[in-house]
Structure formats: structure tokens, C-alpha cells
């Protein structure tokens, strides 16, 4: 037996195809992030057929924390779909291939499996990419809410303390300033706390320091840093709790 046949045998031994009302249910030897085998369907309608997921993929990913309202993540997903010839049906939330002649459906199986495997990358983006995505989404929302010319980055707001830079600065029409720190790690949280202490120390009333978390899951930020932040004068907000609510909170504090 040559290597090609050995590989084919190893793969096909774990491949199960059975007839179901919509066409065929296909179970592969590939493992999904949940530990279950990767499965999908071949929907057959007359002489045509297409491949589609079970309908739970989108919900499974969202349940694991993938935020599809994020422009960056949607761009990654769209790129994967384009690369593998897959579309997302708005009608039923299914990832599916194009319709082809029933006899040609087998040719679409490997690209579709590759897509289903690679879409899991959305779960395993390294922390720096995730942090960058959160920060970019936050900045974009602030620019949409307050206008781009009122938002600036990495700015020192206290003249005699040039090393205390603020990650995102929003100058409201009222004259008040939102000094925003996206809470991506312990260092950022502690920088925000120190800045808020300086604002209080210098009795600066027109600057409102904010610490905005992407979510409250324990990850890059330790419990100790969270406790220090809670006991400071920082105004907290949580991005995953509602972007509109976060923008409204910033607006309310600086109006």
C-alpha cells in the first residue's frame, strides 16, 4: 500500500455518510472545537445539491465569545468564505456552498471541510489580535459618535506630566474631555489608575478618565488589577455589555 492509499484509508475510515430527509448527513474524522466530530449536510433538491452546516455553527461560535458585530472579525470571516466558495444564508443562518449538479457535489467536500476547520481560527486569534480588534472597534465607535475630528490617540493631557499619555481622547462640544483607556492588560489598567490619581491630585475637573473592558471574563487582566481599578476614581464600562450603552455613558459624563 502506498502513502496516498494509506492517507485515503485513514481519512475514509472516519467518514460516515447516511441518508436523511434533506439529502445526506456527513460526519468526518475531523474534530470540532467542542470535541465533537465535524459534521455537515449535503442538501439535495432534484438534480441539484449543495453542502451546508448544521445551522448551529454561527451560534456555537457566538456562544464561545466570537463577536460577529465586530467589523474586523466579519472581514476575516468574509475572507474565509470567499477563499473556500462558501456563503452565509441570511434567511436561515447556514454556511453553504453554491448549488451544483448532484453528481458534482463530492468535489466541494474538501474545500467545505477546510472552511469549517479554518473558521475555528476565529476562536483562537492570538490575544494581541483580539486586543487590537477591541481597541479599533472602540475607536471607530467613538469617531462615529463624536465625529472623527474630536477623537485623538496617545495624547498627554496634563501639561507638566508628558509621560502620562491617554490611549484615546475625546473632546466633547461641552469642553469636557473623556480620557479613555481600553483595558487590554494589567499595564493599561494600572496606567489608567495612575492617570486618574493625577487628575484628582491636580484637581482637574474637565477631564473624565474611563476604563473600558472588552468583557468581564478573567483573562489578560488579573483580579488584583481589577480590584485596584474598582477602588479608583476611574469611570468603568464594559464593551460586551452593549456598545451603544458605552457610547451613551461616555457622552453623558462629558456633556
From TrEMBL:
<dbReference type="Pfam" id="PF08861">
    <property type="entry name" value="DUF1828"/>
</dbReference>
<protein>
    <recommendedName>
        <fullName>DUF1828 domain-containing protein</fullName>
    </recommendedName>
</protein>
<feature type="domain" description="DUF1828">
    <location>
        <begin position="28"/>
        <end position="115"/>
    </location>
</feature>
<dbReference type="InterPro" id="IPR014960">
    <property type="entry name" value="DUF1828"/>
</dbReference>
Amino acid at each position: 500500500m502506498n502513502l496516498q492509499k494509506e492517507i485515503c484509508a485513514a481519512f475514509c475510515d472516519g467518514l460516515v455518510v447516511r441518508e436523511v430527509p434533506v439529502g445526506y448527513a456527513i460526519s468526518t474524522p475531523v474534530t470540532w472545537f467542542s470535541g465533537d466530530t465535524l459534521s455537515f449536510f449535503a442538501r439535495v433538491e432534484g438534480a441539484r445539491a449543495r453542502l451546508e452546516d448544521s445551522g448551529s455553527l454561527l451560534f456555537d461560535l457566538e456562544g464561545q465569545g466570537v463577536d460577529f458585530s465586530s467589523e474586523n472579525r466579519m472581514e476575516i470571516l468574509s475572507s474565509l468564505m470567499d477563499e473556500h466558495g462558501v456563503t452565509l444564508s441570511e434567511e436561515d443562518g447556514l454556511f453553504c456552498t453554491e448549488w451544483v449538479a448532484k453528481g458534482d457535489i463530492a468535489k466541494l467536500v474538501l474545500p467545505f471541510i477546510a472552511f469549517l476547520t479554518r473558521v475555528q481560527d476565529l476562536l483562537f486569534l492570538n490575544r494581541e489580535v483580539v486586543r487590537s480588534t477591541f481597541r479599533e472597534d472602540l475607536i471607530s465607535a467613538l469617531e462615529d459618535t463624536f465625529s472623527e475630528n474630536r477623537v485623538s490617540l496617545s495624547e498627554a493631557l496634563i501639561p507638566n506630566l508628558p509621560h502620562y499619555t491617554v490611549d484615546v481622547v475625546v473632546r466633547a462640544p461641552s469642553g469636557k474631555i473623556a480620557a479613555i483607556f481600553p483595558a487590554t492588560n494589567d499595564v493599561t489598567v494600572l496606567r489608567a489608575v495612575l492617570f486618574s490619581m493625577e487628575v484628582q491630585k491636580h484637581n482637574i475637573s474637565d477631564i473624565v478618565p474611563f476604563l473600558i473592558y472588552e468583557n468581564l471574563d478573567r483573562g489578560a487582566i488579573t483580579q488584583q488589577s481589577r480590584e485596584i481599578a474598582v477602588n479608583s476614581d476611574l469611570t468603568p464600562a464594559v464593551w460586551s455589555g452593549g456598545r451603544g450603552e458605552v457610547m451613551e455613558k461616555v457622552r453623558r459624563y462629558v456633556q
